[in-house]
Write the structure tokens for this entry.
Amino acid sequence: MARIHSQSSERPTVDSIRSVADAVRRRVLEHTLTNNGGYLSQACSSAEILATLYLRVMRLGPSDASSIPKPFAGVPGADNPDAFTGAGYNGPKGPDFDRFIFSPVHYALVLYSLLIELGRLDPNALDAFNRDGSTVDLIGAEHSPGHEVTAGSLGQAISQAGGIALARRLRGDSGRVWVFMSDGEFQEGQTWEAFAALAYHGLGNIGVYVDANAQQCDGPMDSVMCIEPLGDRLRAFGAEVHEVDGHDPDALAAPAESMAERDRPLVVIARTDPCRGIERLRERAPKLHYVRFKSETEFETYRTLLNQMREGIR
Amino acid sequence: METVQRPHRENLVRWAQSRPEVLVLSADLTASCEADGFRDAYPERFFSMGMAEQNMMGFAAGLAREGLFPFIHTFAVFVTRRPFDQVAMSIAYPNLPVRLIGFLPGITTAGGVTHQAIDDVALMRILPNMSVLECGDATDVESVLDVAQAVNGPVYVRMLRGEVPRLFDAGEPMVLGRARVLGEGRDLTVLSSGICTEEAMRAIQALRGQGLSIAHLHVSTLKPFEDPAIEAAIAGARLGVVTMENHGIIGGLGSVVAELMAEKGLGGRLIRIGLRDTYAHGASRRYLMREYGLDAMALVRAAEDLTSTQFDLTEEALSRVRLETMSRIDKTEDL
């Protein structure tokens, strides 16, 4: 397998990746305030993972989609030639380009915010966030910017990505398929079916980054259904597994930068902190899955915090 | 009447030879679904996915997104029940051209309730973008792949395996959205599908001998259901309509005909022959067809009901009816 090149010849520094990740957190907080609710802790946990994927790991061409997202064009169907996916924001498809499959689509706002920071999406695109008739959905769909498959029923994207990776191997493409997953998806049986199949069919052109924030809708994962030891389980299923600090861009990128040709799926378990960068969130633990501010005081607290975060840039 | 041994097995190999874009995905039922010939002929296009149907549906979706045509081969219950969400979300929503070939429809298996797909047509019909086809004989089996492959979107095929009768002329392939008109008549219209068509042919021949005029259509496209010949045959039935299917009466052929009759205002009675809101159990096909009233005698009883007449027909008389391979009737005028 060829070495994976980043999208620019200039290798982004760790500082630049961190500053993109911080900007993503600020924008997600801003929209959580605007909408009185949002998947804020997911931005805290995943900002560096997604920024590292786009800036260091994936080989993507420039966006070929409209910087202001097109309105919803109807559901796909034989009689609807206008239906589209949001894959164009990740650049054109081509044998040497990588593909990005986004699985936990309730992280959509994190992805939109990142696409804005990377210049793939207009900052005003979020005016349409969660608006009727728009494609900038609260829970992303395959028509949403940066999305390519229907993934909201969790655990389904990894199998679809496996099919794409298999097709790419049959075609002889050098590009890889990168999947972003949440740790909760490892409670789904389908995820394990998928890893068994990826290993059995020797698909080394697929890499999976897992945001292991240890949180899910009902609370901490170990209070809902434990999936640990995740690394050992995945190794037993035949994957090459790396467990890294999910907020360290170098550590995140290193496993993908290996020159070695693989005959098995690569998994990077990114151990993350669901409150990273917004310490205040810790007082809400263990209920972090969806953040809604309950009082005007709380609003004011987070508004002030956002202003401080903005000032912190300068 | 001629019977054909494993028509799908040979046909799939022949049909796929010039179609390198066609793949087969199997979940540990390869020979059971007559895909072993394909596996041996084109090993590079055959993928064993193990007993893991949910993942198999996702892989098929990904392959289809990349321009390939995956033909899933497994039992109908394992296409439609276990991975229903995956079929709905990964395949049907994006309208991907995955061909779901489901074997052992209804009570064609002695495998019991876990293996008997009595609700598969209903489950696939309710999915937007999904087309639903059903084979009734060897000619249907040999031509259904062409029909499915011409559809822009996912297709569910109720397939037959093993020894399959040839009811229809081999030169008259299945046509999408067109029923086979097997007979015309004014008193009753019988719409049958799958293995029930052979039973219907037996009963209808006997009933015609009793002076009844019966239109008979074999339905192979269950969705979309827009054949004007079906509508005309229903409208032309003086005493009523009978549907006959190897499936529950809820959600399958009987339901779709009821919906059509109600929406088009085609008055008259409808008797739905099929499993009447019940599961079945492991036993021979012949035994179960008799037990659940899916056989020729069930159609005689329905005809008696609709005509308020008692026919002097015994099971022995029905079993003595000789069936020949039929050609589609050339229709010179509308029913």
Notes: Residues 1-8 of chain A have pLDDT under 50 and may be disordered. Chain A has one domain: 14-67+82-311. Chain A touches chain B at residues 75-78, 83, 142, 149-150, 152-153, 156-168, 170-171, 189-190, 193-194, 196-197, 200-201 (CB under 8 Å). The beta strands of chain A are 99-102, 177-182, 206-212, 215-216, 219-220, 240-245, 266-271.
